[in-house]
Amino acid sequence: MLKGMRILLGISGGIAAYRAAELARLMIRQGAEVRCVMTQGACEFITPLTLEALTGQQVHSELFDLTREREMGHINLARWADVLVVAPATADIMARFAHGICDNLLSTLYQARRGPVLLAPAMNTVMWQAPATQRNVQALQQDGVHIVGPAVGDLACGETGAGRMSEPMDIVAGVYGLLLDQSLAGQRWVINAGPTREAWDDVRTLSNRASGLLGSLIAEEATMRGAVVQLIAGPGTPATPGVQQRRDVESAEDMLAACVRAAVGADLFIASAAVSDYRFAEPINGKLKRGAANDGNGLTVQLLENTDIVATIAGMDNRPETVVAFAAEATDHLENARGKLRAKGVDAIFANDISRMGGSRGGGWWLTADSECKSGEMGKAELAAWIVQRVIDMQSGKQ
Ligand SMILES: Cc1cc2nc3c(=O)[nH]c(=O)nc-3n(C[C@H](O)[C@H](O)[C@H](O)COP(=O)(O)O)c2cc1C
Questions:
Q1: pLDDT, tens digit, for every residue of 92-125?
Q2: Would you say the C-alpha torsion 332, 335, 336, 337 has a positive or negative sign?
Q3: Residues known to be catalytic
Q4: Atom of ligand 1 nearest to the CA of 90
């Protein structure tokens, strides 16, 4: 999340300028304050009005604009931002940046600031590969500028190759890398999330009220802090645009297989999914008809117990170094969680109340063999960050 971060979004005059609107929206949705600076070229491709409507802020494009200079001068605008992101970055604007040419507002702002700069180049492949462009990119990198992309794919000019502007989420991930602490860089995390669904027949299922929200937010948070995350997601788990690898599964058995496969060689496994403890002994093909219970004895259905995923992973020979379980309890939360911590052989457990399932807020207890602490009641994004911080503290021996 980019909560509270101030992003100056520079837009230069390439065909991908229209995607800057999507990028601005994504950054705002993640909590950032975004102000836009557009070159004259960019205004040929997309109107400042679009960006003003999306950001709720005046869009700046003129260097010599005395009225605005009184309100927020170009130097203040440069100082205001935590990061300058230019997307798309044309061959032209990169040349100006690389050579210190300050003949428009964006290139002047670049020259007038000290903080991090992220460029997302976008252009035709030949332009990208042109010796001058490559020289400029190298010079900018030597000056400490970060470059994301360009991606390879179909280009607006009809050719295929390197030159597409990176996806907005990849650009946002680049911003995370610059602004957020990357203490999980180099780690591979596997997280399961959401409910599972057990088939009774081809129509009916046995499931639970879990939404997968907290697990998906933990996956996003770990990604933002530099981990490579693989999410094994049960039905209905929200979209996770920042997470590199995601596998959607349905039943507890599918989830077990996917988790065991993914956990081999991983640094950490977090079992946030509400996995069904039971499955139907004999799922029915087709649809069970009405009337099956008409003999007055009711309908008896046999359930079998599913394998405990987190205990299985904690018991693997090549298990991840850290295994974290979740426990949703109705009563005696701490006592039950302490018992599960020992019985399942996990390193930590997050215990919460079953009433939190499916909601947007949560809270609970974090337990390890020798420590216990309680979170306050908070939104699930904040709670996800709290849980990831507990893991980082545990890994660094602080708990
Ligand atoms: C239709 C059209 C599309 C263009 N697309 C790109 C592009 O994708 N990338 C690029 O570097 N330049 C592109 N250009 C060239 C730039 O618009 C031109 O170099 C301009 O001077 C850039 O100005 P600016 O960097 O100040 O925005 C395009 C030009 C036209 C007419």
A1: 999 999 999 999 999 999 999 889 999 999 999 9
A2: positive
A3: 157
A4: 11
CA angle 216, 147, 69 (to 5 degrees): 100
0.85 surpassed by pTM: no
For a mutational test of ligand 1's pocket, the pick from 44, 63, 90, i.e. the residue with the most ligand atoms closer than 8 A to its C-beta, is 90
Residue at token pair 């020289």: 135
| Residues having CB within 6 Å of any atom of ligand 1 | 12-16, 39, 41-42, 90-93, 104, 122-123, 127
Is residue 21 classed as helix, strand or coil in its secondary structure? helix
**Residues 324, 393 contacting (CB under 8 angstroms):** no
pLDDT digits (tens, 9 = 90+) for 274-304: 999 999 999 999 999 988 887 878 899 999 9
Q: Which domains does the chain have, with CATH numbers?
A: 6-179 (3.40.50.1950), 188-395 (3.40.50.10300)
Beta bridge partner(s), residue 350: 326, 366
The half-sphere exposure of 9 on its side-chain side, counting CA atoms within 13 A, is 33
Residue owning the nearest CA to atom 5 of ligand 1: 14
- Which contiguous run of DSSP H or E holds residue 366? strand 365-368
Atom of ligand 1 nearest to the CA of 11: 27
